Amino acid sequence: MKQTKLLMMGQTGHGKSSLGNFILKKNVFSVSANPDSQTNETKGCYGISDRSDIFVIDTPGFNDSKGQESQREYMNQMVDYIKKEGEGLKGIVVVLPFHEDKFSEVIQIMIRIIANTFPISGFWKHVCVVWTKCMCFYPQAVLEESIHIKQSYYNAKMMDYINQKTGSEHITFPMFFVDSNPCTGQDNSRSENEIESLLNWARKLSPIDVNKVEKRDIVYESVILEEEDQEIVISKTEKELTTQINHLVREKRFRYDEDEPSYSNWETVSSTTKVKEFPKQVTHYVTEYIYRDPPKEEKNKENKEFEDTMNGLGAAIFIGGCIVKYITDNNRRKKKWSN
After folding, report:
1. Where is the AIG1-type G domain (predicted)?
2. What is the pTM of this model?
């Protein structure tokens, strides 16, 4: 016979353990009216008779009175147990009390923690809701009205919330209404029928790959490690610059119950020293030519020589012009006489 394993998840005091006993038809999980958690570790057990193929895994409650550190230990131990003993796990049973009317922030956070713990494709098809403490003596008309409201209201709220986080999903979560701790002598056949429907649903599911189950923090939904380098000048001379480069890290934390992230302090994880030598300076020599006026006597002498030269040149040009004119006129007279 194939095994069918169910994982009970819910808040402290909502009746996970009593539901597990009711499913298995035997008392194996501790139950108490005390508001403090009676389950301090994840453990499982097989049922008897026609439930011998059913294995129920009971877990410590969310929002446990023992604090966050204990809650972290419980969640980590749960994941270890599932990886070791959870082969054949088919259904995740979210346990809520019948008197819970609102889709509270605590329930929303619980849903997100469950989803993050099981990052598996098609995970929501393995999730159902069992409403405990749905007393068998409630009038049928009252039950039917309350059941209808919860089925429509909670399915819509859960799908809206899931789609805000994961995208587009179209699932109607199976819901079962159970009185797992009926009074002696009361007819509780309705609850028995609900459990049979729950088991028929679970047996048809394919097993969850428990190797993909991950440990998750119960306070922070995600933590991102940020890094940066910080350069500090140690010394500076004419020849070199010495700096220290510190590699810093801090955590950017996103809580389940807050929209804005928080940050841890920057911490130095490594340091290196860097020396930068300045380039050598090269001196270039440039020859400078400076013009200075000559002394006044030399300047006057130069001017006199320049004037004499120009005068001589002018006289030469005049004489040359006269000679050219004489030759030209003489040639014209000869030509005239010859005619």
Report:
1. 1-229
2. 0.71
